[in-house]
Design brief:
Blueprint: H1 2-34, E1 36-37, E2 40-44, H2 52-110, H3 115-123, H4 129-142, E3 146-148, H5 149-164, H6 172-184, E4 192-194, H7 195-202, H8 210-223, H9 228-236, E5 247-253, E6 257-261, H10 264-274, H11 285-293
Antiparallel strand pairs: 1-2, 3-4, 5-6
């Protein structure tokens, strides 16, 4: 009988314990959601109160302000964007046109002979580099830097006839180049020219490949105290540099870019950017030929080959 009563008491006790444990678990879960610490009921964190309706209202208000600004000024924005596009297109087209116009001006003013005439004077003569280098050495021994064109041209004709029994054909094309250059430079005495310029022009008549003619120019460079400025100037003023390689941006916009003709310093400065170790006053033959054939000068269109 006593054992039966103890068994009932044990069952009741287990049930009470089970109910209390379940209630404790529920309290812990509720307290975790509310920010309370079930172990320390007086110490709890207040939950962060967020008013989603108020936050959404503020966001919608800002969006409405942005939308109202765009919708209010949409026509002005469209006009400004369209105008800017027109200006950019006009500037691009006008810049290209200015560049082409400068090339045409250079070609008309400084190119005294055409490509056809250039080939005519080359192939109509039978003067090779050996003969031409003999002329170079003869001229630098006999003449100073400035010479009279009539005198030196007659002297060369006599030298070629007596020593090699040849003459210069289509020599009037050489005359045209030199006289045109003197006119462009406002030279009051059309007969006075530099010896270097005369020889560089005369190199046109050599009937050999361009590599041999470049070697001839290097010989002139050596005999001219390695003065690269006079070499470049002579090439620019003797129809031997393509017109498009003589054009450079002037640094002025109106609003399109304006262009001008290059000078020797422009060409040297641009070449140094890619060849920082070059010494223009002491170039070897390979450096000299690479410079004249580069995109910066492009003698006889060699940079396009």
């Amino acid at each position: 009988m006593m054992l039966r009563n103890l068994s009932k008491v044990s069952i009741v006790a287990n049930k009470i314990c089970h109910d209390n444990c379940s209630n404790r678990i529920i309290i812990q879960r509720l307290s975790s959601l509310s920010g309370m610490n079930p172990m320390f009921p007086g110490n709890y964190e207040k939950p962060l109160l967020i008013d989603p309706l108020k936050d959404n209202n503020n966001s919608n208000s800002n969006n409405n302000k942005d939308e109202s600004f765009v919708s209010k000024h949409s026509s002005k924005i469209g006009i400004i964007s369209f105008s800017l596009a027109i200006v950019l297109i006009y500037s691009y087209i006008k810049s290209n046109q200015n560049q082409k116009n400068e090339e045409i001006t250079i070609s008309n003013k400084h190119h005294s002979i055409t490509i056809t005439e250039y080939n005519d004077i080359k192939y109509s003569n039978n003067i090779n580099s050996i003969i031409f280098n003999d002329i170079i050495n003869y001229c630098y021994q006999k003449y100073n830097n400035n010479v009279t064109y009539d005198v030196i041209s007659n002297d060369i004709k006599i030298l070629l006839k007596n020593k090699y029994n040849i003459k210069i054909n289509n020599g009037y094309l050489i005359d045209r180049i030199i006289i045109n250059n003197n006119n462009n430079n406002n030279n009051n005495n059309n007969n006075m020219i530099s010896l270097t310029y005369f020889l560089i022009v005369l190199n046109i008549i050599i009937n050999e490949n361009n590599y041999m003619k470049l070697k001839n120019l290097y010989n002139i460079y050596l005999n001219n105290d390695k003065n690269i400025i006079s070499i470049i100037d002579s090439l620019l003023n003797s129809s031997q540099i393509p017109a498009e390689k003589q054009v450079i941006y002037s640094g002025v916009r109106n609003p399109a870019k304006l262009y001008r003709r290059k000078n020797s310093n422009d060409i040297i400065d641009s070449y140094i950017i890619d060849n920082k170790n070059i010494d223009f006053n002491n170039m070897n033959e390979e450096e000299f030929i690479n410079f004249l054939s580069s995109k910066h000068l492009c003698i006889w269109g060699e940079c396009y080959r």
